[in-house]
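Propose amino acids for all 344 sites.
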């Protein structure tokens, strides 16, 4: 079987904020080679994730840290997490029409080796897109970062940055179900209203309207912050540390504000970290595959009972992958950013 395939490449390294002109849509045809044990996957949904910007730079310290962060080569197709359907297979473990989640390409079709397939979906009671969002690595990041890294207790005071994003929106809901007091920040009044009215946050604020973040957090947390779940880094991390309680915990899931601006680097007050005995830990979802069954069980239960709301922001068509990616850094998305490539 030969397929005609449209796919996305970067045409230059991206050193600051991404632009649509950094990407190019190309077309090629391919088929399974005789003797190959690969499969051809028709991509259905592709996850759009901000960490990918670090793979597109000429250099980032993250590129040598773990396999999925290796650099993207200029002119070659970008890869990322996706869910798709097998349309041709020379591998005995996979048959035509199998639904699979894995590291595929930013394309209509992907030529996939077995090692790149994370999971075969036997059934799915929820939308397939959930498996690259709330039931995938975004969900695991929220669950493991909160429960495993932060070790929360009922009644503690939690601050979540980028709280309307794919991870932050779930962290806040997990924290509320545990019985914590939760405040989130986001970049528009629409997002702030969503956090309070739809997701159950105790309070929220638009960081773009604040001129002194340390004072802002003091206002929202007069009794201090016990846990800060960080998705942005930079001055928000500095402000949070300044307002942490003794033995506070900071889970650093991402540093969105620092990805595209080399002039923004967090410099928290180290005396606070020492004398307040604050724990600051970066983490990756891949560190916590051992808790994936527990995460999946609890999250599925929350979804079934309506206790958890999955936010998705879906664009359509492979040609809209670049604007979807660029939009992440403009704050355009609410919840998990996904591009739908084809119907289920």
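Proposal:
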């Amino acid at each position: 079987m030969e397929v005609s395939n449209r796919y996305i490449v970067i045409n230059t390294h991206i050193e600051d904020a991404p632009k649509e002109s950094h990407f190019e849509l190309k077309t090629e045809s391919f088929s399974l080679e005789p003797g190959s044990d690969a499969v051809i996957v028709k991509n259905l949904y592709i996850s759009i994730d901000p960490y990918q910007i670090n793979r597109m730079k000429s250099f980032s310290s993250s590129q040598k840290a773990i396999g999925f962060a290796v650099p993207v080569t200029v002119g070659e197709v970008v890869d990322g997490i996706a869910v798709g359907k097998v349309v041709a297979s020379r591998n005995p473990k996979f048959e035509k029409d199998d639904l699979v989640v894995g590291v595929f390409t930013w394309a209509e079709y992907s030529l996939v080796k077995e090692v790149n397939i994370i999971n075969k979906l036997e059934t799915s009671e929820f939308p397939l897109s959930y498996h690259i969002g709330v039931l995938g690595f975004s969900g695991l990041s929220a669950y493991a970062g909160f429960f495993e890294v932060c070790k929360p207790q009922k009644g503690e005071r939690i601050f979540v940055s980028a709280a309307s994003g794919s991870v932050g929106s779930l962290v806040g809901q997990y924290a509320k179900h545990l019985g914590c007091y939760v405040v989130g920040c986001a970049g528009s009044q629409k997002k702030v209203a969503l956090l309070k009215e739809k997701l159950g946050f105790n309070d929220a604020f638009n960081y773009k309207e604040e001129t002194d973040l340390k004072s802002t957090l003091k206002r929202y947390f007069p009794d201090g912050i016990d846990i800060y779940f960080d998705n942005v880094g930079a001055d928000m991390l500095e402000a949070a540390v300044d307002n942490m309680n003794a033995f506070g915990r900071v889970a650093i899931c991402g540093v969105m504000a620092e990805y595209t601006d080399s002039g923004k680097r967090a410099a928290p007050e180290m005396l606070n970290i020492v004398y307040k005995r604050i724990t600051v830990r970066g983490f990756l979802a891949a560190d916590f595959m051992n808790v994936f069954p527990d995460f999946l069980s609890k999250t599925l239960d929350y979804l079934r009972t309506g206790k958890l709301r999955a936010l998705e922001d879906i664009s359509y068509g492979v040609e809209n992958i670049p604007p979807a990616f660029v939009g992440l850094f403009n704050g355009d998305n609410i919840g998990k950013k996904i591009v739908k490539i084809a119907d289920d």
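The chain has two domains: 2-133+311-340, 137-286. DSSP finds ten helices and 15 strands in the chain.
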